[in-house]
């Protein structure tokens, strides 16, 4: 049996809250979220969604400040390549043949005791 617990490290709690916010945002935009935090031995996809025409793989980055750069800057070229490989694995595991796909970033800046600021970068990589 797998149990899901709330992360205890502050940065992990921030990330988990950001992923919940991002999933709700995508659903409000009319997308259907197919997977949240899908894992395989090679890594994890934060969110996989569809607009009924495209498969949308969304990397979520949440930070409490921009002191170390904008959250979207954490998605490097190498990370983008890994996410693309994981997307192929997700499609194979879910028996989804080829379909148009898009790779998005949702960047959230969520300072303590302030409302979050969410930015959605479509086709970011």
UniProtKB/TrEMBL annotation:
This is UPF0102 protein JT362_16500. Pfam families: UPF0102. Belongs to the UPF0102 family. InterPro entries: Restrct_endonuc-II-like, tRNA_endonuc-like_dom_sf, UPF0102_YraN-like.
